[in-house]
């Protein structure tokens, strides 16, 4: 893997990173967040797509699109996040039984909250969650105020792990209030669409797999119409994928 652009500026020549532990540390430094002001959160979206815009393969999951390049970056970014946030539909079809991140980046913790691994937060009004879902990170449930109590019981979660949120902004505030201020959103498209429409995404990080798959896969963002401008901050080029990082214009 090579670094082509950093902090919005093209490098004089591609900088080789490799794919091993040294590359992981370099990518962690590249994506590291500055100190966050008290009471604030940083919301980063990380998604994989193909050259023709598909976010899942023929089996309906993103797993068939994975490759060594985006697996490297996903593992690094999970090691930087206080919490991984996903929608209920995503956890029902994808494997979220283990969201720790790269083991060689866990000590000392690079997370703003200092936890040894990220929490997992699922957006669901039903509380109908897979039995295999990772519950040791810990697991949090985000539900509407009208559904939160029953959804928490169905998910078998204590009340302290249930966040009643009427709006996307309230969901982010609820996570931040519990010390989870570096938030990584991994889908699905409806979850990203809700956050984008409310101007809550600070970064868009995309791994573009060097493949096409056709079919009727949804777009990366699916939700209410909006118009936001983004600045390209960094660009990584690998054999299997191109990984871009965009920051929202202020």
TrEMBL record:
Residues 42-234 form the Bacterial bifunctional deaminase-reductase C-terminal domain. Pfam families: RibD_C. Gene3D superfamilies: Dihydrofolate Reductase, subunit A. InterPro entries: DHFR-like_dom_sf (IPR024072), RibDG_C (IPR002734), Riboflavin_Biosynth_HTPR (IPR050765). Pathway: Cofactor biosynthesis; riboflavin biosynthesis. It comes from the Bacteria. Keywords: NADP, Oxidoreductase. This is Riboflavin biosynthesis pyrimidine reductase. It comes from Brachybacterium sacelli.
């Amino acid at each position: 893997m090579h670094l082509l652009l950093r902090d919005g500026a093209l490098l004089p020549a591609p900088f080789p990173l490799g794919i091993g532990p040294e590359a992981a540390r370099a990518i962690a430094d590249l994506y590291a967040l500055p100190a966050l002001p008290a009471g604030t959160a940083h919301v980063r979206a990380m998604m994989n797509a193909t050259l023709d815009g598909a976010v899942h393969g023929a089996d309906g999951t993103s797993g068939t699109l994975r490759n060594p390049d985006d697996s490297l970056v996903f593992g690094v970014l999970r090691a930087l996040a206080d919490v991984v946030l996903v929608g209920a539909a995503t956890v029902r079809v994808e494997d979220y039984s283990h969201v720790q991140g790269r083991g060689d980046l866990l000590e000392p913790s690079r997370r703003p909250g200092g936890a040894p691994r990220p929490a997992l937060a699922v957006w669901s009004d039903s509380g109908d969650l897979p039995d295999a879902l990772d519950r040791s990170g810990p697991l949090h449930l985000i539900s509407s105020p009208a559904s939160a109590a029953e959804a928490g019981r169905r998910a078998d979660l204590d009340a302290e792990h249930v966040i009643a949120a009427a709006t996307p902004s309230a969901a982010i505030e609820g996570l931040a209030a519990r010390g989870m201020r570096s938030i990584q959103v991994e889908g699905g498209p409806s979850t990203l669409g809700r956050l984008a429409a409310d101007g809550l995404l600070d970064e868009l990080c995309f791994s573009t797999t060097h493949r096409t798959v056709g079919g009727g896969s949804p777009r990366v963002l699916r939700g209410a119409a909006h118009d936001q401008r983004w600045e390209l901050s960094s660009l990584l080029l690998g054999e299997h994928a191109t990984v871009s990082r965009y920051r929202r214009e202020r």
